[in-house]
């Protein structure tokens, strides 16, 4: 079936791009321009007409890409029209009225590119990440994957496993013969090296996922300590309500920031204290949950929060920094029980030492998101499949090849299959919808 969709952002714009892909593309373009097709891959200025009424819709740039040399691998065209809502609606309606075309589903153009062998699954996911990128480091990571470095690494490991599997399956022709001891030793040695390579990739502190989704920062502390003020300061706008009334923030408020080129998700949480209010208690539970999930906890107190010292043991670890706010209001000296936390003495109102806090956060970000590898795991499904691959390799190692040959060989097949899921070299229909549903319609 032929599909079409608006590939540029919806709404009024200088230029809008409508994509068409499928077997009817050629005929639809001929009907729209009322003449023969332009030269392939050459931008051509042409008039577009309503197929039913022959009235002029717009003068547009038409690009014609005959398959298989197109993004989707099918016949495909792009119509670059003036970006008014009326023109877009009129053009889409006249195409859809032919009954030869339907609206594309989210990510369907890229899904077709994958199905038709134009791109691998890692590249398809990286294209989605590139579209959603908000910072330079996210662009760099997506482009690295698109270039194919991660794919080549995983495919190289997969080919090594397939070679070992082929050696074992050759024994099927000679079932009465035992596998020579030196062959068994070499196979296990090669598999240990493969397992070690996969473990190195997995031991990445989840850098790829943090870059893709954002480094999570939770601001936690007692009521009226300045959590919402700090959130607003970082955001440079009023995200959170600032009030002297304790318990004002009851839910978790989040904002996405570009923090010196790094993607950061900052959460403002409910003030932590003993409370009998049911709703506030739920907010405090959420605060602890966000603190537990965060890559960095900013614990903020003020000099009067002596009763909060007990909570610090629950909230503070090596992934935390402690701020003592409102030091402009008091002659504050760091008490002994706080010295071990190396607190920053700040005033959000007077902007005292805030620059030091920001420098510390940047340092933690750069340290946490640094990686020396160019192989990125950007999704939990990659991590699950790679871990399952390791489990299958370990099951293989625990078997006697001569006594449990069939079971051991099946372990190796499962390991190959799990690696294949990462790069899309197996039947992955069950995961395609979840991947491409995150795309915009025209991609």
Give structural notes.
This protein has 443 residues and is of the alpha/beta class. It has three domains: 2-104, Probable tRNA modification gtpase trme, domain 1 (Gyrase A, domain 2, 2-Layer Sandwich), CATH 3.30.1360; 122-204 and 377-436, tRNA modification GTPase MnmE domain 2 (Four Helix Bundle (Hemerythrin (Met), subunit A)); 211-368, 3-Layer(aba) Sandwich (Rossmann fold). The protein is 45% helix and 17% strand. The protein is built from 16 helices and twelve strands. It has helices spanning 25-33, 85-96, 108-115, 121-132, 136-147, 149-169, 181-202, 207-213, 227-235, 278-293, 309-315, 336-339, 354-368, 380-397, 405-423, 429-436; strands at residues 2-6, 13-21, 44-49, 56-65, 76-83, 101-103, 215-220, 253-259, 262-268, 296-301, 320-324, 344-345. The strands form two sheets. The chain has a six-stranded mixed β-sheet with strand order 3-4-5-2-1-6. Strand 11, helix 12 (336-339) and strand 12 form a beta-alpha-beta unit.
């Amino acid at each position: 079936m032929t599909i079409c969709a608006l590939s540029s952002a919806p709404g009024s714009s200088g230029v809008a791009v409508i994509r068409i892909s499928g077997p009817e593309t050629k005929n639809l373009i001929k009907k729209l321009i009322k003449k023969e097709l332009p030269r392939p891959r050459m931008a051509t200025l042409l008039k577009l007409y309503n197929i039913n009424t022959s009235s002029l819709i717009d003068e547009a740039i038409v690009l014609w890409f005959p398959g298989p040399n197109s993004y989707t691998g099918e016949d495909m065209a792009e119509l670059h029209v003036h970006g008014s809502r009326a023109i877009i609606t009129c053009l889409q309606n006249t195409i859809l009225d032919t009954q030869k075309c339907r609206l594309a589903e989210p990510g369907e153009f890229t899904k077709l590119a994958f199905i038709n062998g134009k791109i691998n699954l890692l590249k398809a996911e990286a294209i989605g990440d590139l579209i959603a990128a908000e910072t330079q480091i996210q662009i760099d990571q997506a482009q690295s994957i698109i270039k194919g470095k991660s794919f080549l690494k995983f495919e190289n490991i997969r080919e090594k496993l397939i070679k070992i599997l082929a050696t074992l399956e050759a024994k099927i022709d000679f079932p009465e013969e035992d596998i020579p001891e030196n062959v068994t030793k070499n196979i296990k040695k090669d598999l240990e090296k493969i397992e070690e390579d996969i473990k190195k990739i997995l031991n990445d502190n989840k850098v790829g996922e943090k870059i893709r989704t954002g480094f999570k920062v939770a601001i936690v502390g007692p009521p009226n300590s300045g959590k919402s003020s700090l959130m607003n300061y970082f955001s440079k706008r009023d995200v959170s309500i600032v009030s002297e009334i304790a318990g004002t923030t009851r839910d978790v408020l989040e904002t996405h920031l570009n923090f010196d080129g790094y993607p950061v998700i900052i959460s403002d949480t409910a003030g932590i204290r003993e409370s009998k209010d049911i709703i506030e208690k739920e907010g405090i539970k959420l605060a602890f949950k966000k603190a537990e999930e965060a890559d960095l906890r900013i614990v903020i107190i003020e000099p009067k929060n002596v009763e909060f010292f007990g909570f610090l043991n629950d909230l503070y670890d090596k992934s935390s920094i402690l701020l003592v706010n409102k030091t402009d209001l008091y002659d504050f000296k760091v008490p002994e029980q706080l010295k071990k936390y190396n607190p920053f003495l700040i005033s959000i109102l007077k902007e005292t030492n805030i620059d030091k806090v920001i420098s510390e956060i940047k340092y933690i970000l750069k340290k946490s998101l640094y990686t020396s590898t160019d192989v990125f795991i950007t999704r939990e499904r990659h991590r699950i499949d790679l871990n399952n691959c390791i489990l299958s390799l370990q099951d293989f190692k625990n078997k006697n090849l001569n006594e449990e040959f069939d079971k051991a060989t099946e372990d190796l097949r499962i390991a190959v299959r799990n690696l294949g899921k990462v790069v899309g070299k197996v039947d992955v229909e069950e995961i395609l919808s979840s991947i491409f549903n995150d795309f915009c319609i025209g991609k």
